[in-house]
Amino acid sequence: MTAAVEPMTAADETAPAPGRANPAPRHPWSDDPYTDALRAGRGPLYLRRSDGWLLPLEVERWCAGADDVDLEVVRRCEGAVLDVGCGPGRLVAALAAQGRRALGIDVSAAAVDHTVRLGGQALRRSVFETVPGEGRWDTALLIDGNLGIGGDPSALLRRIAHLVAPHGLLIAETVPDLDVDERVRVRVADGRGATGTPFPWARLGAPALFRHAARAGWRPEDHWTAGGRSFVALRRDRDRDRSPRSTNSTAEPPNRTAVISSHRARKPSPDMPVADR
């Protein structure tokens, strides 16, 4: 089974998924520090909570080519791959370089442009909107903190279950070595005073992910660590999912979806905030 990467039309760009309300207007991201960082290929860049808590984001790593840890994720992918929140597109490009069928989706125009320049296919799209090949992707990816998208892990996992084929695979990156399960509102900040629009965001360790996954129709298949990062492979379990096509979601509209983010700080551990400057 393979999922075709369908051409995008103007109607596709704004069409809501079946059974969902029209999303709120997109945030243009034109003045957002995330866009500036992607275009420059470097930080500093942080997720900033209202109390001043900061988590460094690894822009340089995201904008570089896939490293050995990334390539292990690529090796584990099956069939056609959907990279949810693909960011600058290093995984999509790595898959394409191997002749693998892959599509990245991201709400950031700068991220999509970067992915295309690397030779990957990408659409500016929220995971909560209509996605090409729904129900036919063999593998979905939630890497670099993208379990945080929408701030509601259970809703996100239910949505991914709708996108993959029966018994499809999900590979997700989690907070390493921590049983973290938190939901907060954050902004992207450059540490020099510029901040983006607030959005809901979540952080999960592997134990919390397994709990949410069981309720959303997924069963654990593997868990590994590499390069200080933690990954979980989940298998779509149609027998345990009573409502695989559910469209109920408490996640916010796509323009408030979390940007690509990393669980792993460059120097401090991910559970330790760094001081706001």
TrEMBL record:
Name of one Pfam family that matches: Methyltransf_23
GO MF terms, alphabetically ordered: methyltransferase activity
Keyword Methyltransferase among UniProt keywords: yes
CDD domains for this protein: AdoMet_MTases
Listed Low complexity bias regions: 15-24
GO biological process, one term: methylation
Record keywords: Methyltransferase, Transferase
Biased composition (Basic and acidic residues): 235-244
UniProt region (Disordered), positions on chain: 1-35, 235-277
Gene3D superfamilies with a match to the protein in the record: Vaccinia Virus protein VP39
Name of the molecule in the record: Methyltransferase domain-containing protein
Originating species: Streptomyces dengpaensis
